[in-house]
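User: Can you model how C2E sits in this protein?
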Amino acid sequence: METKAVLPVSPKQTILVVEDNEMNREILTELLSDEYNVLQASDGFEGLDVLRENYQNLAIILLDIFMTECNGFDFLARKREAGIFDSIPVIVMTSSNTIEDEIRCLELGASDFLAKPYNTEVMKNRMRSIIHLREASSMLNRLERDSLTGLLNKEFFNLQAQSLFAANPELKYDLLVCDIENFRRLNDRYGSQECDEFLKYLARQLSTKIPDLVVGGRIGGDIFAFLFEHQPLPWTELLESIVEEDKLPGVTIKYGLLNDVDTSLPMRTLCDRAFMALEEIKDHFKVNLAIYDEEIHKEQERKQLLIESMENSLKEGHFHVYYQPKHDLKNDAIIGAEALVRWIHPELGFISPTSFIPLFEKNGFVAQLDRYVWEQVCIEIRHCLDIGFSIVPISVNVSRVDLENPNLAEEIIALVDSYKIDHSLLHIEVTESVAEGNKEEIVEILNKLHDAGFMIELDDFGSGYSSLAALTTLQLDIMKLDTSVIRNASEKKNYSLVRYAILLAESMKMKTVAEGVETDEQMAALRVLGCDYIQGHYYSTALSKEDFEPYLLEHQSANDDSFMGRFF
Ligand code: C2E
Ligand code: MG
Ligand code: MG
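Assistant: Here's the modeled complex, given as structure tokens:
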């Protein structure tokens, strides 16, 4: 059977004629209905009603000026007041051809002015070109703007800001960036639709509440940037008033401010700086605004130096593995140690892992560093075995980034096997946060390691991010109570959290290690509560391998030969 290609019929555009003279209305409808769907209204009020119902489909409005009920001027004023109809063009048609009326109409937002009697062809051509112009500009608008919030997208925000700087070199500006904390979690909790609504609300609130705003942009999923004229503002009150209480319970917004921006710098650098300020308060519970200053600048430079030198330091052996002993609370015997990395930087000297591990977790370098640490630990264990020390199990830290490698279990097993070390001599420490997000794959890796004979320790328990999810999904052997839990308990003389944690661990057949134990008083309390093992300055700080080996030897005599078997 022969088939014919059928051209799609282009849908007619819809227009609105607002005219109180019935005959004129009908004539116009007759003239235009071959090209358009024509809606009619017999006065300004009716016109506004039709507009409200159909504004999403209206291509243009033809408006009579002199009507008895709500004339054309009123119609234009009310249309403008509503705001959302701005993009619909209006051609005003009237027999009055005074220049004052024409100016007034144009001032009220009309696109063009046609005097009656009109020439049909002139009118139709003007309509087409105005509609075309509007479509072209709305297309551009769509490219420039984020469709959800209506703010400029990142590129156009940067472009517009730079051209403003160039056009007004005498003006001073401030830049505010804001970020919603844990937006991913809020999405899980409230659903994407509600969170989208919140983004729109936030963009609207910030756009309207920041005085002298010049340009605003959505420069990331939940990240906005606003450029405004430099001025002192009551920031605390202003930012507190942005999000109404109960709008989205649990939401926290962090702001970073860059005052009197250096307009000679690229916009990206300026946004980065405002962001650096914001990053400083990411985990601060009560602080929501940070202002970029010299201190932040220096801190950023230091971080930059660390990042620039990390690879070389790894090659040159500037990272050292230290060992912090773990002791049995009952008989003081050493039953294990944790491998902790230290960076002896050629320029900056000793650097604590708390200031570089989070940085390396962000840029992914921690995976390389951890692999190096694990290998150093294997070398040390092999060395001790070779010289006849009864080595204790050594635990290594495994960060979340390591667990993104789906072959991690196989790689660790291969590494340990290549040194012919029994799997029971290496323990794996993970924090609870590993149980969040990409759960299944991570659970699989850890369970594979557990099944291969590695002990799994849950690190930093009670440090504030406890979700307890890890306890139910992972095969865990040991719970490590975080330093902060022990410190808080002894400061407040209230060990109930420690007691519950130990009971919880017992009920799940896990042993407990208390970290950060320093005093006799802490030791006494932990003994009463039935904690199994202690890691802390009470016994020893982390030791270099040169110091660890004699320590091991010295405490070996305190152990009987079967200590390894007793531990596990
Ligand atoms: P962590 O795994 O919870 O390690 C225990 C931290 O508590 C260590 O800090 C240790 O020195 C400290 N500590 C132990 N006893 C006491 C005490 O009695 N008092 C006090 N005030 N502190 C004590 P460190 O070595 O600074 O490590 C901090 C964190 O850095 C570690 O916490 C771990 O999360 C991370 N880290 C250290 N080495 C590595 C590594 O090789 N790889 C990875 N991924 N993370 C590491
Ligand atoms: Mg640890
Ligand atoms: Mg810990």
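A couple of observations from the model: The domain at 13-144 is CATH 3.40.50.2300 (Rossmann fold). Residues 1-9, 560-568 have pLDDT under 50 and may be disordered.
User: Helpful, thanks.
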